[in-house]
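the two lines:
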Amino acid sequence: EFRRFSLERSKPGKFEEFYGLLQHVHKIPNVDVLVGYTDIHGDLLPINNDDNYHKAVSTANPLLRIFIQRKEDADYSAFGTDTMTRKKNVLSNVLRPDNHKKKPHIVISMPQDFRPVSSIIDVDILPETHRRVRLYKYGTEKPLGFYIRDGSSVRVTPHGLEKVPGIFISRLVPGGLAQSTGLLAVNDEVLEVNGIEVSGKSLDQVTDMMIANSRNLIITVRPANQRNNVVRNSRTSGSSGQSTESSLPSSMPNILENFLHGEEESDEEDVIIEDSGEPQQIPKAAPTSESLESLTQIELLHESTQNGFLPSSEMNSNHSAGSISMEYEVQDPDHKSLEEDGTIITL
Amino acid sequence: MRRFLRPGHDPVRERLKRDLFQFNKTVEHGFPHQPSALGYSPFLRLMAIGTRSGAIKLYGAPGVEFMGLHEENNTVMQIHFIPDQCQLVTLLDDNSLHLWSLKQHSGASELREEHRFTLKGPPGSPPSATQITAVLPYSSREVLYLGTESGNIFVVELPSFRVLEDRTITSEAVLQRVPEDYCNRRSCELVEALREHPKNPDQILIGYSRGLIVLWDLQNNKVTHHFLGSQQLENLYWQRDGSKFISCHYDGSYTQWPVSSDNRQPEPLENLVPYGPFPCKAISKIYWQTTKNGLPYIIFQGGMPRASYGDRHSISVVHGSQQTAFDFTSRVIDFFIIFSSEPTAEFDDPSAMVVLAEEELVVIDLKTAGWPAVHPPYLASLHCSAITCSHHVSNIPLKLWERIISAGSKQNIHYSNMPWPIDGGTNIAPDPPQRDLLLTGHEDGTVRFWDASGVCLHLLYKLSTVRVFLTDADPNDNMNTLGEDEWPPLRKVGTFDPYSDDPRLGIQKIYLCKYSGYLAVAGTAGQVLVMELNDEDAEHVVDHAEADLLQDQEGYRWKGHEKLKTRDGPVRFEAGFQPFVLVQCQPPAVVTSLALHSEWKLVAFGTSHGFGLFDHQQKRLVFVKCTLHPSDQLALEGPLSRVKSLKKSLRQSFRRIRRSRVSSRKRRGGSGNASEVQEANAKFDQDALQEMELAPVQRKIEARSAEDSFTGFVRTLYFADTFLRDSSRHCPSLWAGTNGGTVYAFCLRVPPAERRMDEPVRAEQAKEIQLMHRAPVVGILVLDGRSTPLPEPLEVAHDLSKSPDMQGSHQLLVVSEEQFKVFTLPKVSSKLKLKLTALEGCRVRKVTVANFGSCKTDDYSENDLAVLTNLGDIQIISLPFLKLQIRYPCIRKEDVSGIASCVFTKYGQGFYLISPSEFERFSLSTKWLVEPRCVVDMPEVTSNNHVHNKSGVENASRKSRSLGDYGEDERKAGRLMEHALLNDEKVLKEIQSTLEGGR
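prediction for all of em together
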């Protein structure tokens, strides 16, 4: 079923409106659909939020080809790079859903079902020689899988080169989270753990810190291999990367606070079993008003509101706080247990 | 944006914090580690002890203590008080001399180092030329005579340490008049002893190691008498009147020599080998003391028959027909005799013998028949059996205090009644504000009760749990069953006995209820004893129960030690704490936590397998709970394999130290050249570094999971009367925290007092909290409606505490090694948390609620948490808002045993072991500070002494609240001291890593 309609390019409006328009045009007001478009490279890319909707509109040249699928029989694998060229005709795929029975596809769930396993963050505030890696550890299905050791590194000081003790990654466990990210390597020097410098701390101290933060570990390393460093966008051009440089130097401390705070948020909650019943997650207590230290209470209040509901728009604005690449791992739908409470993508 | 404001910078709070908290290391209790020298001033009546780490400690009357530390941290070889002065000179093993003096400063005396000096020979001379072997502080107080290895005697002026070269006594000058044949046989060799003539200050007696003794005339600079000894000389002693002296020798003999003006080369009067005729060991020191009745006391160290008793550390006292060889359990460092020091007195009339052995101080009363020992008021050997745990109880009610003292006095009947003979100086510290008890558990199954109220840690009472059990060693097998005609007449003295018959007897946990006098003690083999204080001897049967903590868990095999066998039938107990209930855990693993509720008459205990609750009124086990994770094999098999590997690695590391020490000493001995030694040390360090680089230590980074071993280990138990199920009714409850971050809460039903014996106590599990970070739970506490910690059992009944607020909602504080968390009750919801490890990389090792009073106003006090971390830092965290108040570095992080031994008091003080035998006392409070303050006056100024003293006291009380630079110095010294003790960092690290790795 083909439809053609026009849209004012300068004022594309919101994705919600667009989605409504599509449903209206196709007369399918109560059917959930997936929306995709082909970009200039011929890739089929999804439209599911304001940002990629605007991007899509801006690429229309002058025509924008949009594909709509019912959500139930959607073929998620159709999206991605080279999808249009790899397959002879996406349309045939889309139009004849029984086609994909031929090939067993890895089912990739919706973006909201994805969860990050690692990311490089704060690229805009760190020196290019450093890398801040965030490892997300959920449940116990995959070990963090790395070892650290004492060592010495050379620093440039006003008095010339100086050898100082440092902490290094000594081993990656095959199949572990650390190795699978590809962001950490043996002999990388560990500089910070969750925003706290490790210099002056003993190996055991750093070990304890990492283990205590193991559910949401952010380590800043100086990679042993400096050739794969992220190059700043400002020095290159024509990159189609999605990173934005929204943060000004003045907002840096804010960002740091923010991510430290986020780290606090995503900490898993303790479990209680009452009278040998079912295990339950321990809720946060509602703050009482008659408190002396109001500051604590305000903090708590803030936390709990953020915890409950999360405006979807915040997702993106948070991402733009410096993250450039994110790897996602498909999550087993059965595993959506206690751990997942909407705080995961909050930074 | 308000949440980004940094909390805790409220100026009012900051000021209050200054009034509440202050960190001081105040005093060291116990016996100095590795003592190496002893000195005594009969004039000041002060004793000085030097140690191998360069510390010097002065002791006088109880409470009079001074401490100094040589910067070099070298072994103190000799200590000599300057006659009639508040000064002393120390000789270190680096051949340096140090002059210390006691000076009054703001009302109290202080020990300060004044000068240091190293004797230098002429250029090109060998180092032995100036290696000091003997020191004689001359009675004129102006000079020191220094005997050296070369045989020369140098004279230095005091206090400037200027060498008076024209007065040097060279060995050539001494040898001039010695007969040819004697001279040929032996050269002078080193100066072994220097003694001033007791009556004639112009004459000094010089003894050389090869046996030659000469009397030197200082006026004419020549030898007046030659005494041609044939045996290698050890020491010399003048008789009081100066007519005779006595020399003691390497072959175990002593010789008396007459001194008269007519014979310039006298023959010995008497030559005796007291423990002959077979070869004997050296007599290294001898005293000859005259008495009114004519029979002298001859007191000498050593001299035992080499073959049969060569391993004994003995000092013999001979008085007429009485002879006793006091047999010490550790090496004798030195000893002195306290005798009449009045210059006009005709006789010595010795009153006491003070012996410094390597592990204890023993004082023998020589005036009382049978020569009994005197109970020392300080310098207690804490480690007479290794300390395995400690427990502090503040503010003991007078009644209990008196009963403990009376029980203890019945144990001390064999001690002499003599007042403590070393009584110099005046204690001007204010009386301790309350009675505090420190209880130490020991490896041999004893619990020692120490008076920890003041500066002197004094043993009140010793409790032994051994009698309840059947052990391999028969208690009747007395080591001291020596017959009358036994020769040599050895008599064991002292309390130091590091050998434990059975390691299972070791005490692991202690809990004393100060109101009821109930005491619970738990040990290594899963034994839990409940005791009651009884003022009389009694014979009764101890009720015995077994607690099977594995319950229905199948297929587990305990590979650890067996449980202790109990004695059947009634057992006789001496007055004091007498056990009436014994619970034995099965498997018999170490008891890791213990709680006693004296009001409900319940005792709870936990091991690595689970925990149980015992009703000691009805003598009935209420319930047990297994905390094991099914996959936890290690906990089940017992500690054997782990212990072995730890022991092995410890042994290896010690061997390594020894090797390194030996080699460095060899180098030092060979050359004596400082730079060479340094070079060698540097090389050694480098080698060690390289070794480290070859085998890098790595640490695994992995989130803790439920499958980790030892998660079932019960770390803490806590009784509380709180709202466990609903907010309208509170009930007794028992809380337990495990190594795996689990908290169990049991609701208890204790029948009312009138039906206490009729109805059983019931328990039902009400809650189980799993902390997701899974760190070991080290503390559980319930805060009442006013956010005050619940009072101890019976505290309210004794009107010593406000009754808890049962109206408002209670809160539960769970302290894990990594986080502090506050939950609401009865519905558990998390309210507050403070992360420690995640932010600072340190872990909680010890935590206690402490009450801090303001030093400014009497009516303000607050409860805070005192926390010791694995880095040795102490942090104070406010309640109930969990804000870090202040942080102090306290113990070196490598000092694992020090951190493990730390115990806090209820009022912000604490103790930790700085060596196996010493507790360091520290204070976090501005209000509760126990530290020595004392004055030593020159005894001559007795007339105006009194007035002076009084003003001193006033000054002191005025000053005592605001510590000036005095406290600062003390603290610095304390820090240095620690450094001295624990400078083998590498080894300590290794020990730590072994311990931590094993955990």
